[in-house]
Write a structure and sequence with these properties.
It contains 2 helices and 9 strands; from the N terminus they run H-E-E-E-E-E-E-E-E-H-E. With 175 residues, the protein is mostly beta strands. It has one domain: Lipocalin. The chain is globular.
Length: 175
């Protein structure tokens, strides 16, 4: 069960899209990305739901630098129906240069999924993350909420890339 939460990355990670890490997408990761500033805990504010996260709230992702240069990922979420916490540990690596917010994340052995930071504020407090296509989207924050202006901005960016923001699940953080 702990592996079920694996494709959350918030994170976002929350995190990721399923499938081949090399699949094409219409958006690019942010330039000037600094992984050291991105490390730490992120709260999942909203997501396009998919089977690995269905029924979870209070979802978070924590990123830390590993000794091998990759990034460790700890995803956590509360399963409402089962009244218990689930967690999964994975690893992330950059797909190209580490100054672009385009990574791939693995929770299942050799299988990696895209994790594209497509919007990020200069203080690294809010992030918009996409997977391999428009089926995977996360809004992340360092706190349990986001200001209305950031919400509007990130929804606008997502809509320009043709994400269906009407299907976003707004995550509760009550535990």
């Amino acid at each position: 069960m702990t592996r079920i939460l694996g494709l959350l990355l918030v994170g976002a990670v929350g995190m990721v899209g399923l499938g081949c890490a090399g699949a094409s997408h219409p958006y690019k990761g942010v330039a000037g990305f600094e992984s050291a500033k991105y490390l730490g805990k992120w709260y999942e504010i909203a997501r396009l739901d998919f089977r690995f996260e269905r029924g979870l709230n209070n979802t978070t992702a924590e990123y830390a630098l590993r000794t091998d240069g990759k990034i460790s990922v700890l995803n956590k979420g509360y399963n409402v129906k089962k009244s218990k916490w689930n967690s999964a540990t994975g690893k992330a690596r950059f797909r190209g240069t580490d100054s672009v917010g385009e990574l791939e994340v693995s929770f299942f052995g050799p299988f990696y999924a895209q994790y594209n930071v497509i919007a990020l504020d200069s203080a690294y407090q809010y992030a918009l993350v996409a997977g391999k296509n428009t089926d995977y989207l996360w809004i992340l924050s360092r706190t349990r909420t986001i200001p209305p202006d950031i919400r509007r901005e990130y929804l606008g960016i997502a809509e320009r890339f043709r994400f269906d923001t009407t299907k976003l699940v707004w995550v509760e953080h009550d535990r």
